[in-house]
Design a protein that fits this description.
The chain starts with a strand and ends in a 7-residue tail after the last helix. The model has no long low-confidence stretch (mean pLDDT 95). It is 25% helix and 36% strand. The radius of gyration is 12 Å and the shape is globular. Strands 1-2-5-3-4 form a 5-stranded antiparallel β-sheet, covered by helices on one side. It has 107 residues and is of the alpha+beta class. The chain is built from 3 helices and 5 strands; from the N terminus they run E-E-E-E-H-H-E-H. The protein has one domain: GIY-YIG endonuclease.
Length: 107
């Protein structure tokens, strides 16, 4: 499924393109943004956790929110690498959080 992308809209009206992977996929040591999500119908996704990191490899290999993600039906991680600085990643994360308000970002 890593050949598949999704465009997530933020509250600003901007959109962000993410690659779709199964949870457990190994990532490179690169900065990026990610969304743990569940497929609610074919091709339709709901986010259960949204985040950003300096290292997708380190952050996604043993995420502390995984019990919550699983409890809410998360099966995939949508991710993209970013060469942008942390502030840009955090702005994207905030834009998506304002739109989607995922349950595991509140737990």
């Amino acid at each position: 499924m890593a050949d598949t992308t999704i465009r997530w809209p933020g509250s600003s009206g901007g959109t962000y393109t993410y690659w779709i992977h199964e949870i457990g996929t190994a990532f490179k040591d690169s900065p990026g943004n990610y969304i743990f999500a569940k497929e609610t119908s074919p091709g339709r996704w709901t986010p259960v956790y949204i985040g950003e990191t300096n290292s997708l490899k380190d952050r996604l290999s043993n995420h502390e929110k995984m019990p919550c993600v699983r409890r809410h039906g998360g099966t995939h991680v949508h991710a993209h690498t970013s060469s942008a600085d942390g502030q840009v990643r955090r702005e994207e994360e905030a834009d998506l959080l304002n739109k989607w308000n995922p349950p595991c970002n509140e737990d």
